[in-house]
Amino acid sequence: MKLSVDHNTAHLQRLLKLAPKKVRHIVDQVLLKYALKISRKAQRNSPKAFSQLRNSILVSQLGVADYEINSGTNYARYVEEGSDEGGKPTIDSLVDWIRVKRIEPDDPYMEEEELAYLIQRAIGRSGTPAQPFMVPAYDSFRDRIVPAMRNQLEKELVL
């Protein structure tokens, strides 16, 4: 999943010609600030079974004014978008999840592995619902980024 902010306005292009290093620095700082805000909100929004997903959400700088917010888990996309039928988590991961969530089977004689198998089969048949955490975090700040950039540019460059 890739999220981007379009900051290629004519105003910004004009400013880049006037003071390229200063403008790049200001734009970079504003984008970093908002990338960190978005990542923190995504962490707060993410489902918390083991905190692995939450702890894997990081900001990486790819270049000047180019940041990526990514989750280092292989299943983040399935949490964000949900999954169709067919995919199944492992029994071991489901047993761990059952323990963390303190799920008790209705049948007191059923073992955790049996319950995990039933959950695995249900997920395989019907998939999992989406639990968006990244896109809502991005959406909550998206409309503030360009105005914040403009304000900072005007303040520091005294236009």
What does this structure look like?
There is one protein chain. This protein is mostly helical and 159 residues long. The protein is 60% helix and 8% strand. The protein is built from 7 helices and 2 strands.
| Average of the residue pLDDT scores | 85
Oligomer kind: single chain
**Order of the strands making up the biggest sheet:** 1-2
What portion of the residues fall into strands of 2 or more residues?
5-15%
| Total individual domains | 2
For the report, how would you describe the main beta sheet?
2 strands, antiparallel
Number of strands: 2
Structural class: mainly alpha
Quote the distance from N terminus to C terminus. Answer: 37 Å
Number of alpha- plus pi-helical segments: 7
Helix proportion range: 55-70%
The low-confidence runs, each spanning 5 or more residues with pLDDT under 50, are none
Global shape? rod-shaped
Spell the H/E element sequence: HHHEEHHHH
User: What is the CA-atom radius of gyration, in angstroms?
Assistant: 22 Å
Q: What keywords describe this structure?
A:
159 residues; two-stranded antiparallel ribbon; mainly alpha; 2 domains; 8% strand
List the helices and strands and how they pair.
Layout lengths: L9 H9 L1 H26 L6 H5 E7 L2 E6 L4 H6 L9 H11 L10 H15 L7 H24 L2
Antiparallel strand pairs: 1-2
Helix pairs in contact: 1-2, 2-7, 5-6
Question: Briefly, what is this?
Answer:
By secondary structure, the chain is mainly α. The chain is built from seven helices and two strands. α1 crosses α2 (20-45), α2 runs antiparallel to α7 (134-157) and α5 packs across α6.
